[in-house]
What does this fold into?
Amino acid sequence: MSWPRPETGKPVPSAAGPITSHGVGLIRPLEATARKSGVQILLEHKMVGLIRENPASGRVLGVTVDNKGTKLNIRAKKGVIIATGGSTGNVNFRRIFDPRLTEEYHGVAGEPWS
It folds into this structure.
């Protein structure tokens, strides 16, 4: 299955299927749309906490991130999107689905940021 094109909502041509049927086929169009809308994308930043109205409840006002050992608080203007990459970096979790994927299967693309 290929992800539909965000611009049209229609399926991609079958020849493009191999490059659009995986996560990148969803993320790249979302990235392009976000950049066009003025969203700033920060690389090499790891979210380490949410900033909320109250410590354990209320609206999310921003995030705390770690950038190469420096902690930063980033205030949200309109919202916070929380997303993760795949679970291939988590040995125990991936072995639930395929017990053969033991510790020696490492080197996930994008580590340590995925």
